[in-house]
Each structure stands twice: as C-alpha cells, then as structure tokens.
Amino acid sequence: MSYFCRAKAKHTAVIAELQKITAEVLSEKFDCPTEADSVAVNYTKDDIDGDYTIVLFPYVKRLGKNPMELGKEIGEEIVGALSTAKSYNVLKGFLNINLTDAYYKDLLKKISQDPEYGREERNGKKVMVEFSSPNTNKPLHLGHIRNILLGWSVSQILDEVGYEVIKTQIVNNRGIAICKSMLAWSAYGEGATPESTGIKGDHFIGKYYVEFETRFKAEYKTWQESAEGKAVYQASKKEEQTAEAFFKAFKNNYFNTHSALGSKAKDVLLKWEAGDTAVVDQWKMMNDWVYAGFDVTYDKLGVSFDSMYYESDTYLLGKQHIEQGLEKGVFYKKDDGSVWIDLEDQKLDHKLVLRSDGTSVYMTQDIGTVEQRYAETGAEKMVYTVADEQDYHFKALFAIMKKLGASYADGLHHLSYGMVDLPTGKMKSREGTVVDADVLMEEVAVEAKNSAAEKGEIAEMSAEEQAEVIDRIAKAALKFFILRVGAKKRMVFDPKESLDMQGQTGPYIQNAYVRIASVLRKQEGDLAQHDTYTDLQEEELVLIQELAKYPEILQSSADNYDPSNLANYCYNLAKSYHRFYHEQRILTAETEAAKHFRIDLSVQVAKVLKRGMFLLGIDMPERM
C-alpha cells in the first residue's frame, strides 16, 4: 500500500471507528439497532470546538432521550475506546470529538512521505469528457471560456482519482450559420484572408457572420416598412399585437420565406449538402482558418484534446439506430412518416427523432454519435459540458439511450453550466457585442501587468521572467474566478476583482505558495525531529486538518463533476496558511523541533496547493 493510501486509510479509519463505537452504544446500551455506516460523521464546523461531529438527532428522536445525556454516553465510550480521541463536547444534537496531537503529527508524517499525495491508482475505467464544441462561424468567447475551463478541470480531476480520461469536442462546422459567413465573405470579402489582413482566423470569419446579420437586419427593416411587409402584418397579426411585437416574432419566418439574403444562404447550404465542389472547397478553406484561430486560443488557455468529432461527419449518424428502435417498439411513426419517442414516463414529452422527409434532427445525430463513441472507446462514462440552455435536450437523450438498452446509459452526464456576464451586462453574438476569449485574456493580462508594476516586486527580474510571472498570474485570475463558482450558477466575471490579492482569487492562492517558496527556498523539514515537537499550535492543527481533507475533496469533485469544490478548498488552505504565517515563526521558531516541523508543514501545504491548482489548469509562480 502506498503512503498516500496509508494516510487516507488512517484518516478514514477514524471515521469508521467513530461510526462503529456509536452504533455499538446505540444498539447495546439503548436497544436501538443501528448500522455503523448509517451514522453521520462530519467535519466539525470551524467555529465549534472539535475535529469530527457525530449527528445525534435521529437517535434522540427515536429514543426520546435528552441529547446531552446521549452524547455524554457515546462520548465517554469513544474517548475510552479510541486512543486517538482525547476529548468530546455536546452541543445540542451534535457530539463533537477532538483527536490527539499525536494523531495529526503522524498523519502529517505520512502525507510528507508521499510525493503524489491525493493521486489514486488507475481504476481501469474510461471516461470521455466533451467540452468547448464551438461553432465555426464566430470566435471563442467568454461563455466558451467557462465551458473549456470546466471541461478541462473535470478531466484533470477524473484522471487524478484513477480514470483513463479522453478529452474530446464536437465542432459544429456545418449548417446555416456557417453558410451565412460564407455568403458574406463571397459577397463582401473582396478576396481578403486572415494572412492578408493580419486578423486571427476565427475573428476574421466572425466578422463576416456579423456582416451578414447586419445586412439582414437592414433588409428586414426595409421589408417591414414595405407594402408587402405591412400587408403580412395586417393579415397575420394576433389581436392587439403591435407591429414591433409581430415583426420580432416573425423574424425567422421572414428569413425562411421572404428574405433574399436568407434564400441565398439556404442555397449555399443545399449546394454544400449536394457536394458542390466550389462550395465545399470554400467551406473547407474558411473552416481551416477558424480551426487555426481556435488552436491559438486553446494554446493560450493551456488545453488540448485527445480526439475530435466534426458535425459534418456526424450529422447523418443515428438513422440506423432509429430503425432498430422502431423494430423494438422504442420509437413510433406518425402518419406523415416522422419518427417520435414517448418520454412521458420520464416526465418529458414526445420527442421527434426523425423528420417526415427522413432527414435527421440534432437528437438523431447525438444518438449516433454517442453510440459511435462507445464503440470506439468503450468509455463507461461520458460527460457533456454544455450550457444549461440544453438541459432538456440531454435529459431526453439520456432517457432515449436507456430505452434503447445502452449498457453505458447510467454513465451519461450533462455538466450543465450557467451563462457568464460582464459587469457591463449580457453579450450578443449576432450584434458583434460578444467578448472574445482572446480579448478578455489580454485585458486580464494588462490588469495583471499594471498590478505587478504598482507593487514592483518583480522589477529585478528579466523581461522574459516578468512576462512568465504575469502570464501565470493573469491565467490564475481568470481561471480561478470562473471555476470557484458552482457550474449551475449564472455568474459575472469582473477582470479587476479577479486579481484582488486579498480576495477569493487565484493570485491570493498563488501568493500563499510564493510565500512558502520565499521562506523555504530549497529547505526541507527533518522528519526525524517530528517526534520531539509536542506542543502543536491551533494554526498548525488547522493546516493538517485541511491537508487531511484533500483526497476526499478530490473524490467529491470527481463524483460530482464539480471543480468549484476543489477551487474553494485551495482557497481555504491558502487562507489557513496565510494565518499560520502571520501567527507562527518558522525559520526563527522557538526550538529546532518547531522549526523543522513548520518547515515540513509548509512544504506539504505548497505541495497540495501546487497540485490542486494544477488540476484547475493553474500554474504556480515561484515569485510574484
């Protein structure tokens, strides 16, 4: 067994012992049969005296006994039977147990002896994590950044707890939106390229998507004021409906039935689907420009993929699975030939899976893609990192796969996340008011550079070293600020706030690491002197307790696909270290034993901070 396993086993063994003794007292002394694993044992809250808390409420109610008396009975038994328990106290329906200093000293020693503390052995299971999955008609933006950071960090955490992780994306590189960009470039681009203009490929194509939408908006406004537009409004409006409300709702109908630009864009799509050589060649060329632009952004964010899927390859997938499902009675066909599935038993409705003309919908494609992925990889789990706008779609997809009898259906998970706004408000891609990922990263980098210049602490470094430090600080600011928030919550990203050295930020955590590095430069604790240090201080105990939680935090973050759990743990650990640093002397400690103990404690904190932040995609600077 590795040192990590021993440390983890020792920590969890205490919980198991507390559960066992509590269950025995309840069963034998109070005739209240209780299974040990049903006893709730939690970490004691920070403002309460204790290390672990046993929840007594369920037994107080069953026994009709005073919680203080019950807690005293169990507490006395625990302190008498468990050598690592030194005292207890009862607060209402909670029994709080204090462990001995010797327990925590021994735990720190075991953590010190494992350079990969927290990392699990391989479990032989595969998981595929899909993230990013952009459209090729516009650049990556702030919303994509949240998607990418969530998917990447979840991938890293899953790898850390033992999974073989396959990072993938499906690029939405076909459809009417792409055709709009193609048409606009053909009509108004005058042969310009990313190379000739010096504009990054995805930004270049995005400019033409906005150009199309701008011209379409003008065309639509002109039509609304025309005799034809006014006649359509009068003939089709609902009672008391204003012209403004009618035309807002009629926009897509206009695009499909009246718009000259819409007709041209649909003609491009039809030619692409028919394999028209000129159109396909233009499509490939423009998509290649976008892919090159995406790669630059991915590189800046420090992310990569193990496999790639393209909608142009997958949009026809799934039809054979629909046919098989029809034969099994999973799907049903309407009189018009369209194919549906009844999901009312899943508290959903009837879902279209194939149009009456035999063409696919997105659900058809996703059914085929998930089957293909499983056939190719054998991944027992598949995680889809997609905005919460698609919650219904994924509920339906997962329900369909269960009805089709997919062996991996229970391993499908939608990592749903809320939108990201800026202090100035929402973003709108069609109007070109989206905050591009590259622009945002540059803005944060400028803020980081200005902040570093004000402090002057890296002024003696070379320009190259300063640039590296600033880059790490900027990326920490961006990534941590986004990842610290639970994925399902909508959030506001504030570049200035993300760099606050005194706030809940990435740079604040980096500063704790840098503080350790500056104090302990190339020094190590002397494990042999741990036994001679006996008077542990409160700040030291808090740090060891925090370190002990790390493996459980990792596992919880993996089980819940929730990087915010790990992010907030890193913040709490850094905060506890800053307090320790201010309250306790390290290199000038009162004794040699205290000095070496605190050096080693600092080293272990740095080790966990560095690894934990790395799993969030954040690198630590040695100076800042």
Index terms:
alpha/beta; globular; Gyrase A, domain 2; 4-stranded antiparallel sheet; single chain; disordered N terminus; Rossmann fold; 624 residues; 4 domains; 5-stranded parallel sheet
Topology:
Layout: H1 3-28, E1 41-43, E2 52-55, H2 57-63, H3 67-81, E3 85-91, E4 94-99, H4 101-112, E5 126-130, H5 142-160, E6 164-171, H6 176-188, H7 194-197, H8 201-224, H9 227-236, H10 243-249, H11 251-257, H12 260-273, H13 277-301, E7 307-310, H14 311-314, H15 319-328, E8 332-333, E9 339-342, E10 350-354, H16 362-377, E11 381-387, H17 391-403, E12 412-417, E13 420-421, H18 437-455, H19 463-483, E14 491-492, H20 506-519, H21 538-559, H22 563-583, H23 592-615
Parallel strand pairs: 5-6, 5-11, 6-7, 11-12, 13-14
Antiparallel strand pairs: 1-2, 2-4, 3-4, 8-9, 9-10
Helix pairs in contact: 1-3, 1-4, 4-21, 5-21, 6-8, 6-12, 8-13, 11-12, 15-16, 18-19, 20-22, 20-23, 21-22, 21-23, 22-23
